[in-house]
Design goal:
The chain is α+β, with helices and mostly antiparallel strands. It has helices at residues 13-21, 27-33, 41-68, 98-112, 114-128, 137-164, 174-205, 232-248, 285-288, 314-319, 346-352, 379-383; strands at 301-305, 308-312, 323-330, 336-345, 358-365, 374-378, 388-393, 396-397, 407-409, 422-429. InterPro entries: Mopterin_OxRdtase_euk (IPR008335), OxRdtase_Mopterin-bd_dom (IPR000572), OxRdtase_Mopterin-bd_sf (IPR036374).
């Protein structure tokens, strides 16, 4: 009967010993090269605690943002996710700033945590080059989860940052890759927490150790530590300062006014222009291929539902009862803005179309291409008192880039579903 490892998983000890006797060239030199006396269980546990508290918030807001796009209508990307499908529910319209908060937190916190993530990886990097890679089956499973964890968070961070920079260099669909990559990371994160949480708690309960620490089972402490060039407190201050700097370079994305120009890491709309229409656009009229003739005197809004079809020109819409609401518009890239919109309530248009109690509404744009040229709105998004077919913004007509002659504005709705250059709305009853 073969010898078994200390963890009782049935792997022969001889395998680990054989691997230990035959390290790859340079393995010992690499191990001895990590000489910082700051590395050790205490520093790794402090950084791990920060991520343990904050990363779930990034995960939860990301999943909520996916739900906000209405996966029940097949308009959240990716559309086909098999058993990774989230429970569907009607995304609320109140508070009106809900999506602005969830998307802003997801993007902003993801950026702010980059220095913490890099510091955490630095603190455990000797472990990644350890030989043999594992000394038991349990450690093999741990290493696999660690590989998925590190790979997952680096992939999600890198692609997310590139996406908000509008640097589409992927060669694959960002939304699909980001969604499935998130689930890989979530699974590895849960497994890693289950494996390491007891040790993290034990380490942090102890008094802060001297520098360098005593050798530890995870071999994070350097074999031959060099002289310290920075204290642990100094290192944590550098990491915290880096996160604070990124926060200052990010927060302007959600603030109107001069601070908008400080959002250097979210360049979209830093200088949107002046005047009542001087705020961000995700897609201009030119980029969308909207022709002036399509939005001129010949434009008609077509309403269908309840067995009737109604066509309205802009003058007729302006003659209807107008409602004004101050509402945010927030984009998947993380920026948001608050503006004052005026137009006709969608609920009034539903009544005009013969559907006084709409279950949903399908909105189509004059735009012929693009992922978001149409959107389906839930019942509460149609009937909310501030859900509008907006004709004016900040007291003036919409500009072409902001959707003239009419666009959708609904509280807490993702910006890309606030359809611009509306051509027709189809209301559906229950």
């Amino acid at each position: 009967m073969s010898a078994r490892d200390d963890h009782g998983y049935g792997a022969p000890r001889g395998l680990w010993r054989e691997l230990d006797r035959h390290p790859p060239p340079g393995a010992d030199a690499v191990r001895r090269g990590w000489r910082s006396p700051l590395r050790g269980p205490w520093l790794t546990s402090v950084l791990g605690l920060v991520l343990l508290v904050t990363l779930p918030l990034v995960i939860i807001t990301g999943l909520l943002d996916y739900a906000a796009y209405g996966p029940q209508f097949g308009q959240a990307f990716p559309t086909h996710v098999s058993w990774l499908r989230l429970p569907t529910f009607d995304w609320p319209t109140r508070p009106s700033w809900l999506f602005r908060l969830t998307q802003g937190l997801h993007v902003g916190l993801g950026i702010v945590l980059i220095p913490v993530v890099l510091a955490k990886l630095w603190s455990v990097i000797p472990k990644l080059f350890e030989w043999p890679p594992a000394r038991s089956v349990a450690q093999v499973l741990e290493r696999i989860s660690l590989l998925l964890l590190v790979g997952g968070i680096l992939f999600e961070t890198a692609t997310g940052v590139l996406n908000i920079q509008y640097a589409y260099l992927f060669g694959f669909d960002f939304y699909t890759a980001h969604y499935f990559g998130a689930w890989v990371f979530i699974g590895a994160f849960v497994a890693h927490v289950a494996l390491k949480l007891p040790r993290l708690v034990t380490t942090l309960r102890k008094r802060r150790p001297a520098v360098p620490e005593q050798p530890d089972p995870d071999r994070l402490v350097a074999e031959r530590p060099g002289p310290p060039t920075l204290s642990r407190r100094g290192l944590l201050a550098v990491v915290g300062g880096g996160s604070l700097l990124l926060a200052l370079l990010t927060i302007g994305q959600s603030l109107d006014g001069p601070l908008r120009r400080t959002a250097l890491l979210l360049p979209r709309g830093r200088n949107p222009g002046s005047g009542p229409n001087g705020f961000q656009v995700n897609r201009s009229a030119t980029a969308a291929g909207i022709q002036p003739a399509e939005t001129g005197q010949a434009w008609r809004l077509t309403l269908t539902g309840g067995g009737r079809t109604v066509q309205l020109d802009r003058a007729t819409l302006l003659a209807m009862t107008q409602h004004t609401a101050r509402l945010p518009i927030a984009c998947v890239e993380g920026w948001s803005t608050m503006q004052t919109w005026t137009g006709v309530r969608l609920a009034d248009l539903a009544v005009l179309a013969g559907v006084p109690d709409p279950a949903s509404a399908h909105v189509r744009s004059l735009e012929q291409g693009g992922l978001f040229r149409q959107a389906t709105l839930q019942s509460n998004q149609v009937t909310d008192r501030d859900a509008l077919l907006a004709l004016r913004v900040n007291g003036v007509d919409l500009s072409a880039d902001h959707g003239f002659p009419a666009r959708i504005i609904v509280p807490a709705l993702p910006g890309v579903h606030c359809t611009k250059w509306v051509a027709d709305i189809e209301f559906h009853d229950a």
